[in-house]
Design goal:
flat; mainly alpha
């Protein structure tokens, strides 16, 4: 009696062509969506590099226009000649107006906040996931409950507390507020990711005499890099784009770019060139960060969702 091996059915040439065309169509659609998503950014860049009269007279897309009668030649002419129609004078004027200090204030607020949130949350998440201590579950429930506490109810009490200790209107005060309200979500996210690490790895390390700090630094933290990296990106973007906390707790000397742009809008409401150049400067770093680490966004959304 002979046996016949059963395998996957062989696809014909037509089936392979359909699969190839399907992949090509999906890729083309995704590229078109990406380009359409970048249109507002391109428009902001063009507006930020033209003077106010030009921006008031015509839309930003007019920079690609040409006097050529043939539509194909007009498009080519517009694509090759539009850089000559732009200028960096708006950025020079913006930086000369003191916007540079606001940029550095944003860095000094965002980077320490992100580092502190990651460091504290990672250690706390490891404790909630793998260290058995009295009241662990109750404390974790309190942390989860803090996720629904709105920031607005803490603005006035914290402002009064900052005034008493002398840090109101300073960068450390803004950083502490961001850290306090960023920790609940960070601990929740990392704890749910850490519990998915195989317990056999940790037990083997304990049997070898490794301390909890050694286990955390050499096993848990490296394995949790996808979730930690995605958390860092999310936290960076949240703090970088924040305006509410900056309006309440930052003064003129410690204001980030969001507050500086808001004040520019109040003072120079008709100067679209100044506002657009400042907005593009505040946009470019998060945009670069997104394109550099976009794969971590998906991993961050999925971290801890499957145990």
């Amino acid at each position: 009696m002979t046996s016949t091996a059963v395998g996957a059915p062989q696809r014909g040439v037509l089936g392979r062509i359909v699969d190839l065309l399907g992949n090509v169509i999906v890729q083309v659609v995704m590229i078109l969506i990406g380009l359409f998503w970048l249109v507002p950014t391109l428009g902001l860049l063009v507006v930020s590099m033209r003077d106010t009269p030009t921006n008031n007279a015509e839309g930003w897309w007019a920079i690609f226009a040409s006097d050529q009668q043939n539509w194909f030649l007009a498009i080519l002419d517009g694509l090759f000649t539009w850089p000559a129609k732009l200028t960096l004078d708006n950025y020079s004027n913006l930086l000369a107006s003191g916007f540079t200090s606001s940029f550095w204030n944003t860095i000094l607020i965002t980077v320490p906040t992100t580092v502190l949130v990651i460091g504290i949350a990672a250690a706390a998440a490891y404790a909630f996931a793998w260290i058995d201590f009295p009241g662990r579950d109750a404390v974790f429930l309190v942390v989860v409950g803090l996720l629904i506490v709105p920031i607005q109810i803490a603005l006035i009490p914290i402002a009064g507390l900052y005034g008493k200790v002398g840090i109101f209107g300073t960068i450390p005060g803004v950083v502490l507020f961001h850290v306090a309200f960023g920790l609940p979500f960070a601990i929740f996210l990392l704890r749910n990711f850490f519990v998915g690490i195989p317990s056999s790895l940790l037990e083997a390390a304990r049997m070898d005499g490794a301390s909890e700090w050694k286990i955390f630094s050499t096993i848990v933290f490296p394995l949790g890099k996808p979730a930690i990296a995605s958390l860092g990106i999310f936290q960076f973007l949240w703090v970088w784009n924040d305006l509410l906390i900056a309006l309440v707790f930052a003064d003129t000397g410690s204001q980030p770019m969001t507050k500086a742009l808001q004040s520019q809008m109040r003072q120079f409401g008709n100067n679209v060139d100044i506002l657009s150049s400042g907005a593009f400067l505040s946009l470019i770093i998060p945009l670069v960060l997104f394109f550099a680490f976009q794969r971590y966004f998906v991993q961050g959304m999925m971290a801890g969702s499957v145990k």
